Amino acid sequence: MARHRTSLHLLGIFLFAVASLKQYCANGEPQVPCYFIFGDSLVDSGNNNNLATNAKVNYPPYGIDFPEGPTGRFCNGRTTADVIGELLGFDNFIPSFLSAKGSEILKGVNYASGSAGIRSETGKQLGVNIDLNTQLQNHQVTISHIVDLLGSKDSATEYLNKCFYSVVIGSNDYINNYFLPQFYNTSSQYTPEQYAEVLMEQYSQQIMTLYDSGARKAALTGIGPIGCTPGATASYDTDGSLCVDSMNQAVNLFNNRLKLLVDQLNSNLTGAKFVYLNTYGIVSEYAASPAFQIKIDGCCKVNEYGLCVPYEAPCELRNLHLFWDAFHPSEIANKFTAEISYLALKKIL
Ligand SMILES: *[C@@H]1O[C@H](CO)[C@@H](O)[C@H](O)[C@H]1NC(C)=O
Ligand SMILES: *[C@@H]1O[C@H](CO)[C@@H](O)[C@H](O)[C@H]1NC(C)=O
Residue 293: is it exposed, middle or buried by C-beta count within 10 angstroms (0-12/13-18/19+)? Predict the structure, then answer.
């Protein structure tokens, strides 16, 4: 109980600090001219809407608390990327790659795709997705338009160096790959340690590609406690624990390596600043706090893929639920995660 009080107290201080920062920076230009987002359904803003996949959600009740209604966001409201965009001072949400038009791309683009992973096969049992390599290729398309808009390659590079980049990826390499042996054989090929290593080798090359494309300020987000999602605890034996511990342990191996990768990138790449966002720790902190009374179950009736059943009314008190559907946090959880993450990423802006 004492521990919980301390956590809550700290969170209160964090949120107060965020509120002060926000006020200080309000009015005028955003803190960076542009914000590029790569990742999976945690930050997807509609890129899967026209794809042949079961991993798309451009229907009610998704978006019930979002100003534009259902957009393809896997949430009742804003994602962490949306909230971070607001804290950075952007007036509008960063457009999805699917919808971005004309000079809009100068503010940034969101390439994220539900079910996508670091590995290209990840999530494909659900249908088509835009894996991280393809997202990086899509970024090249954006860059060529920015060269046209700014008139030269040099001015585009100078511009791209000033942007903020965030990558939220890896959950599906576990949920929709390693822990689905009926579809994928990675768990028979690799121990959890080896798998984390293999993922990190590929991920570090992908981040180098981003660096070569001009990224100099980037946040790499760790994986959250996926073993505690309603989808995980419904599908796997928890052995009396509240969560599927084997999933959380596997994810922590990944996160520990990701932290090391960020340290290496910071010492190897001059002029670049990377930050690791400890989503696992952040979520565990507020999820454990009884004062929040956040319910661990989801807020809507879900289908076989763990997504809300179309047009079914969701729960009323959405701000009391940590989860929206079987896998995705609710807007209130995204808000907490984003506000605490923002304090860490401020250091590299
Ligand atoms: C795992 O699956 C891939 C693709 O389906 C296949 O190429 C590979 O040979 C398999 N590996 C093992 C060890 O079964
Ligand atoms: C950083 O440099 C060290 C020493 O040259 C090298 O072993 C390591 O692979 C590099 N890591 C990255 C992520 O560039």
Answer: exposed
Q: Please choose, from the candidates 31, 108, 85, the residue with its C-alpha nearest in 3D space to the C-alpha of residue 349.
A: 31
Pick from 206, 258, 268, 270 the residue to mutate for probing ligand 2's pocket: most ligand atoms within 8 Å of its CB.
Answer: 268
Structure tokens at 138: 């899509």
CA of 123 to the centre of ligand 2 (A): 30
pLDDT digits (tens, 9 = 90+) for 181-207: 999 999 999 999 999 999 999 999 999
Please determine, for residue 296, whether its predicted confidence score (pLDDT) is greater than 60: yes
Q: How far apart are CA 136 and CA 293, in angstroms?
A: 40
Pocket probe for ligand 2: among 203, 263, 264, the residue whose CB has the most ligand atoms within 8 Å is 264
Is 120 in the active site? no
Helix H or strand E encompassing 218 = strand 217-221
Average pLDDT of the chain? 92
329 secondary structure, DSSP code: B
Instruction: Count structural domains, the chain.
Output: 1
- Supply the range of the domain harboring residue 105: 2-345
91's CB contacts (< 8 A; 6+ apart) are none
Instruction: Yes or no: say if 202 and 119 are a contact pair by the CB < 8 Å rule.
Output: yes
Residue 188: CATH number of its domain: 3.40.50.1110
0.85 exceeded by pTM: yes
Distances (CA, A) of 179 to 75, 118, 182, 213: 23, 15, 9, 33
